């Protein structure tokens, strides 16, 4: 293995900590960083207080096509691309900064984040592998996540055309939430 300077080593550790704090799984760390697996597991335990979860990563591109996931994924990927192409960030910086901006956006608009960091990372991989593309919405001109060979013309994004069940789903979710918090209050009493 190549000898790294102490500064470079420290930078890798900081990158690992940033990713772990944002919720990265081990597979993300292993593919993005050059630290040994042992050190990354130790870092993970230190930052999170628990061992990293085992198991496979989610890897279906279809996940990004459902209505709500598509809006969130499109928001994140547009931010990522801006940071990478316009702000000249490295892939890893664009990923972490873009993901932080995405979380901030969710917080400001009082929306639960749908995309976790690992999903965001997988999304970028799908674009790199030419499985996904950005398609321009013919109503708002915004670019949204689509399958590579999907239609490119006269298509409308999820934000411009919410499915009719979206309102109902939201109401159902709110009702569920209320029921849950009611149960918690009841338990506490
Ligand atoms: Zn649109």
Automatic annotation (TrEMBL):
InterPro entries attached to this UniProt entry: FlhC
Pfam families: FlhC
Transmembrane portions of the chain: none
Keywords: Activator, Bacterial flagellum biogenesis, Cell projection, Cilium, Cytoplasm, DNA-binding, Flagellum, Metal-binding, Transcription, Transcription regulation, Zinc
Cofactor annotation comment: Binds 1 zinc ion per subunit.
Key word Cytoplasm present: yes
Primary residence: cytoplasm
Family per record: Belongs to the FlhC family.
HAMAP family, alphabetized: FhlC
Functional description taken from the UniProt entry: Functions in complex with FlhD as a master transcriptional regulator that regulates transcription of several flagellar and non-flagellar operons by binding to their promoter region. Activates expression of class 2 flagellar genes, including fliA, which is a flagellum-specific sigma factor that turns on the class 3 genes. Also regulates genes whose products function in a variety of physiological pathways.
Protein's name according to its UniProt entry: Flagellar transcriptional regulator FlhC
Encoding gene, per UniProt annotation: flhC
């Amino acid at each position: 293995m190549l000898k790294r300077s102490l500064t470079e080593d420290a930078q890798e550790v900081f990158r690992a900590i940033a990713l772990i704090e944002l919720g990265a799984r081990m597979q993300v760390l292993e593919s993005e960083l050059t630290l040994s697996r042992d050190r990354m597991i130790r870092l993970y335990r230190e930052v999170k207080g628990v061992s990293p979860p085992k198991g496979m990563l989610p890897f279906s591109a279809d996940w990004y096509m459902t209505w709500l996931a598509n809006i969130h994924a499109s928001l994140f990927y547009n931010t990522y691309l801006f940071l990478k192409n316009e702000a000249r960030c490295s892939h890893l910086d664009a990923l972490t900064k873009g993901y932080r901006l995405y979380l901030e956006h969710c917080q400001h608009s009082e929306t639960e984040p749908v995309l976790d960091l690992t999903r965001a990372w997988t999304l970028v991989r799908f674009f790199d592998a030419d499985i996904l593309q950005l398609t321009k919405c013919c109503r708002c001109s915004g670019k949204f996540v689509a399958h590579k060979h999907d239609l490119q013309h006269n298509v409308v994004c999820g934000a411009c055309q919410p499915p009719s069940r979206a309102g109902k789903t939201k109401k159902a979710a709110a009702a569920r939430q209320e029921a849950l918090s009611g149960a918690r209050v009841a338990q506490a009493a």
